[in-house]
Design a protein that fits this description.
β1 and β2 form a beta hairpin. The longest helix has 14 residues. The radius of gyration is 14 Å and the shape is globular. The chain has 107 residues and is mainly alpha-helical. The chain has a two-stranded antiparallel sheet with strand order 1-2. The protein has a single domain, classed as Arc Repressor Mutant, subunit A.
Length: 107
């Protein structure tokens, strides 16, 4: 019997969808995933290229999502270890990377 080839997940059309929709569809299992989704929302829907931890906290609060206790920790971890975010031009600012956008759209 042949082993099945892994199938590539189809891209989910998220254009114009807000964070509430993203949270419902993606069902984040951990705080890091919530931070990435909030960063994606800020970039795509609010048209901001860079964001700070307070921006993440504000958008999560706006959509009644419990924010992690230390958002800045997740921003650093996601940029340094995972590569889903990158450092912005100024200290304390971040932006979602191309791989972060793909990760949200295809996972």
């Amino acid at each position: 019997m042949k082993a099945e080839k892994p199938t590539k997940k189809a891209k989910v059309d998220l254009k114009g969808k807000d964070l509430g929709y993203l949270m419902k569809v993606k069902d984040p299992k951990n705080d890091a995933f919530k931070v990435v989704l909030a960063g994606y929302h800020i970039n795509k829907n609010e048209r901001k290229r860079e964001f700070r931890s307070v921006d993440i906290e504000d958008v999560l609060k706006k959509f009644n999502v419990e924010a992690p206790n230390n958002v800045s920790y997740y921003l650093r971890k996601l940029s340094d270890d995972k590569g889903l975010l990158t450092h912005g031009r100024k200290s304390g600012r971040y932006k979602i990377s191309d791989s972060g956008v793909k990760w949200v759209e295809y996972n």
